Each structure stands twice: as structure tokens, then as C-alpha cells.
Amino acid sequence: MKLHPVSTVDALAGALRRRVLSGEIAPGTALPEQELTSLYGVARPTVREALAVLVHEGLLRRERNRSAYVPEVTTRDLDDLMYVRRPLEDLMAKRLAGRRVASADGALTRMAALPADAPWADVVAEHMALHEELILAVGSPRLERLYAVLAAETRLGLVRLRAVYPDRETLVAEHRDLLDAIARGPSDAARRAVAAHLDHTWGAD
After folding, report:
1. Which value, in Å, is the radius of gyration of the alpha carbons in the chain?
2. CA-CA distance, 191 to 203, in Å (whole number)?
3. Which of 102, 20, 84, 30 is nearest to 62 (CA)?
4. Would you give the DSSP letter of residue 61?
5. Which of 51, 88, 113, 152 has the highest count of CB atoms within 10 angstroms of its CB?
6. In this structure, what are the phi and psi dihedrals at residue 165, rounded to the nearest 5 degrees?
């Protein structure tokens, strides 16, 4: 097994990413470079590069004369996000109906195996992986690109589900039902299951 060294920039970006996706750093929170330099004991250029990584991923936003900050994603934003996701995932359901996607099952297995005290960021990662593996299984590069554009807002939205799903087993069970419905088919049933799965509450603003 090969070891993959992690740079200080990657390590810092990873630490901040986990804090954002666990909800520890709340929306609207500013991340001044000097404070992060002191908190993590790294050079300021390292902080600047790590923040740039997360800005590129869409998990942070940076504006002129303002520190990088976690963007606010409102329920209205999320409703619009789902409005765009539904037709994309409907295409996925039509194509995959009657098929079992092993890689999506793998993401669900990893989600279910997370310890009870695992950071919510780990749940977000496997949740995203499951949906992305379904999209990848379609085999359409254009669908993949369209779906990838929505990834950052989707991940930030999933942070809110921590309050909606205090019992992670419920979240796991819903995704197991989804994968089973797609695998069983037929197309109409799979599409209905996907539409129902995407029709959920995000909690109050």
C-alpha cells in the first residue's frame, strides 16, 4: 500500500473543510487569515492557499476587502437547488432503473458503518458520494458536469440535515430504500422514488 504524503496546505484545507461540513463553522462566519495562522500555527501564505482551495470548491466565499467566509445557503436557495437537481436525477433514475450500482451501495455501507460520534462532515461525504456514484453510473459526461456545478451548494445544504436527521439510521434507511427502488425498477417506479427522496425539508432558516 502506497502512502500519500499530505502537504500542510492540504492538511489545513481538510481540517477547515471538516469544520464547515460539520456545521462547526456556521454560515456567515468570517475566517481571518491572521486568526487561522495563530490557531493552527502555520504561516500566513499556507492559510491563504488553504482558503483558496475551499473558495475554489465553493465552501467558502471571498470578496474584496473582506475575509473569506462561509456562504449562507437559505431554504429558498435550497428549494431552487432541488428544482434544478430533480430533472438531473430523474434522468439518472430513467437510465439506471433495474440496475444495482455497487459503488453507491458501497457509499451507503460506509455511511452506515460510521461510528455514532463521527463528525457530520463524514456523513456529508458519504451522502454526496452515494448520489455522485449514481450520476457517474449513467455514463453521461455532460450530466456529470452539470451535477458537479451543484456540488458545493448541495454539500452546504447537507450540513442542515444534521438537525433534520438526529438519528442517522433514518437517513441510512431512506437511502437504502432509494437504492432498492432504483434496482427493482421499472423506470416509472424508480423515478417516483427519486422524486420522493428529493422532496424533503431542510429545516428552518
Report:
1. 18
2. 25
3. 30
4. B
5. 51
6. -120, 70
